[in-house]
Amino acid sequence: MTMVNSYEIVKAAVDFANPPRIPIEDLSIPNKSDIVGVGFEPAIWEWNSLSDGIQECVDLFGCVRRRHDQGIGEVYKAPLETWDDFSSLKMPDIFNLKASTLLQLKSLPKDKFVFGDLGQCFSKIFEIRGFENTLIDCALYSDQIKKLTRWLATFAYERVNMYTEIGNIHAISMFDDWGTQSSMLLSPERWRQLFLEEYRKLFEHIHNNNMYVYFHCCGMVEPIVSDLIEIGVDIINFDQPRLHGIGHLGQKYAGKVTFCCPVDIQATLPTGNKEVVKSEAIELVRHLHHHGGFIAKIYRDWSANTGTFDIAEYSKSIFKTIGHEDIQGLLNVDMID
């Protein structure tokens, strides 16, 4: 069957069904991306101006956030300062989120592969409880952490059901960071004790609703990659593939999960070096593409810092060149200008 649109090409990549080219995730330019997303929480946050250029908002979970720019800011005040406050936590109202999602979906180009976003899923505990408190709680108060995780799961299920009702959503995305640059925030054993089964049940619910699971996780989380694959992650997004070792990822996991990766956002893109960027783009496809199983992500946040050219757009041009027609032709590096 000839694949004529973005949805079919991405699906073939995730299913290891020999897509005719490498699919592209470039969420900042929907018309030029094979993947688009809806349901992002920041779209409905209402920011109020304070003094000295500071803005403040309260997110869906009651976290007070502050920012100096146009980003998502940082949590200034956590809603669960003590466990005595647990009963006062308010489940987010999905009505506004659904209305915003419908408008976003209506505005997007057709025939794309669509993510329905959960934002932070279970790692949201770090914002609701506070970072230091959460680390202490994970070590000493596992029952409370499990209770909060179950509360978060309740809303996650509600959002999955919302996307199912809306329709035309092909994967559920979540952005849960569990790693630092050198290790996990929790030991792998503790992470499994506290979170693995809730993830397993959520992923099963997503699959039962005929959607894929897209899981972003920053940091050195290689010890739990096998766990994530075993419990149902279909697409795993690493923005720092060099941190894990691109060859290692390919040798151990290629063909078992679809990788969605940019050229490394800390070790490679910031150099602004075209030859280094080209070499790594080729390396990513060579090691991670296995009859599919690789999506090229375009990460644009470094573009303003490179000065001489748009390094993100250049990385995209390389992925597109080696991703069309005969993908194995990437072995001939000279084909790339």
Characterization of this structure:
The chain is an alpha/beta fold. It has helices at residues 6-14, 94-107, 125-129, 131-140, 142-166, 188-208, 225-231, 241-244, 246-253, 274-288, 311-323, and strands at 24-25, 35-38, 48-49, 55-58, 64-67, 74-77, 113-117, 171-175, 212-216, 235-237, 258-261, 294-297. Helix 5 packs parallel to helix 6 (188-208). The relative contact order is 0.12. The model is unreliable at 303-308 and 333-337 (pLDDT under 50).
Q: What's the overall geometry?
A: globular
Q: How much helix, percentage-wise, in residues?
A: 25-40%
Say what oligomer this is: single chain
Radius of gyration: 20 Å
Overview in brief:
This protein is of the alpha/beta class and 337 residues long. It is 39% helix and 14% strand.
